[in-house]
Amino acid sequence: MNIAALAAGVEAQDRRSLARAITLVESARADHRAQALDLLSRLDPARQALRIGLSGTPGVGKSTFIETFGLMLTAKQLRVAVLAVDPSSARSGGSILGDKTRMERLSRDPLAFIRPSPSQAQMGGLARRSREAVALCEAAGFDIVLIETVGVGQSETVVAELCDMFLLLLAPAGGDDLQGVKRGIMEVADLILVNKADGDLKSAALRTCADYAGALRLLRRRPQDPDGFPKAIAVSALQAEGLAAAWAEIETLTDWRRKAGHWQANRAAQARHWFGEEVRRGLLNVLEREPAKGIMDQLGTEVALGKASPEAAAARLLGLLGKG
Residue 184 pLDDT more than 80? Predict the structure, then answer.
């Protein structure tokens, strides 16, 4: 594979080159990994897009929201990339990857690019190489990168380490009104969008939005937020209502963070976070190769037979690695 030509194609905004590049970085093959690192090193790191993470429970309307929101942005002549993570089967490892089908209108928009990726059992709602896919979309000149997580609930906070803006999409009358004060995903959301504020659900959506707005006031203010943030807004992806207001809030918060210096500080902290993640992944790969794999198998057998506790066996293994 000609990596130099592929990098040039990505930076020339060639969609086919971008698709091939994302396929390359997602590959688990060792030779492909080396090529992916070579490709990423050739791209201009100065190109930056607004990274928007989006999470929410299944059935809340994430795909409908992304399509309507994306079409609104492309109508403003903004180039939009959508990276959608689909859950992988724990048994077969397969994924449906049907996001292009669910976002049919947006997938036909020449200013939009949709790429579904399997989660491959990766925790936190993201695919393993989501960060590198984002970097490729930025190098391809997209103005906005929307990252849709799997949608599993309160544990999906990893996306906050990847995006500049994190949107949490909720459904009206979804349960306990005190849900809003729970720690976890609520604490990292920049905007809470209560979807389906239309038809018979509109009044329930407005009440739910008011409940969450009240709950947000109980949370400690974050240093990267101006007064009034985070906010809760009622929207209807189906009727395209409230989306312009949500975009205006995103722009306001983005501008404030840039001027206050939080934007680059956040990007630097994220880069450090992903450096640590790569080191941890590399260590796990080392443990999967001999001689560490043989030692792990031996200790695992001792744990299974009750001859050693998991904690003691892990301490022995780490001690042996430290001596090596």
Answer: no
What HEC string does 225-251 produce?
CCCCCCEEEECECCCCECHHHHHHHHH
pTM of the model: 0.85
Q: Which of 23, 146, 135 is nearest to 80 (CA)?
A: 146
Domains of the chain with bracketed CATH: 1-43 (1.20.5.170), 44-260 (3.40.50.300), 272-323 (no CATH)
* Residue 96 CB coordination number (10 Å): 12
Place of tokens 């201009």: 44
- For the chain, where are the E strands, in sequence order? 50-56, 80-86, 112-118, 144-148, 165-170, 191-194, 231-234
Cα dist. 254→35, 235, 247 in Å? 34, 20, 10
Does the pLDDT of residue 10 top 90, yes or no?
yes
More confident residue, 186 or 50: 50
Helix residue ranges, H only, the chain: 3-11, 15-26, 30-42, 62-75, 99-102, 104-107, 130-139, 185-188, 202-216, 243-260, 262-287, 292-304, 310-323
Q: Would you give the distance in Å from CA 109 to the centre of its chain?
A: 22
In the structure encoding, which two tokens stand for residue 107, read together?
A: 């997938």
Query: Do 175 and 169 contact (CB within 8 A), yes or no?
Result: no
3 state SS of 157: coil
How far is 316 from 296, CA to CA, in rounded Å?
Answer: 10
Looking at residue 49, its pLDDT comes to 96
Cα 10 from Cα 76, distance rounded (Å): 23
Report pLDDT digits (tens) over 34-47.
Answer: 999 999 999 988 88
Interatomic CA distance for residues 301 and 317, integer angstroms: 13
Helix (H, G, I), strand (E, B) or coil at 57: coil
Instruction: Map tokens 């992903």 to a residue.
Output: 274
From residue 259, how far is each of 53, 226, 255, 262, 264 by CA, in Å?
21, 11, 6, 8, 10
**Secondary structure (3-state) at 133:** helix
